[in-house]
Amino acid sequence: MLPRRPSSLFRSRWAALLWAAGVLWTAVTVAGAGASQGPSPPIENAADALGQPIDKEDLALLRNLTG
To answer: Cα dihedral sign for 24, 30, 35, 39?
Structure first.
């Protein structure tokens, strides 16, 4: 990602700008731009990692903890 001599990259503003644009483009390509996926599916018959059923009280507790 960095050139052989990183100090040479920032001698030119345009080279630094193009390098930064490439880093941002790579980040958007890999992680995505954050497009919404629409409404979440219903949680009927949902289970946690241990196989226990998830109920609305658990979700309310998580909502209170996270925000």
So the answer is: negative
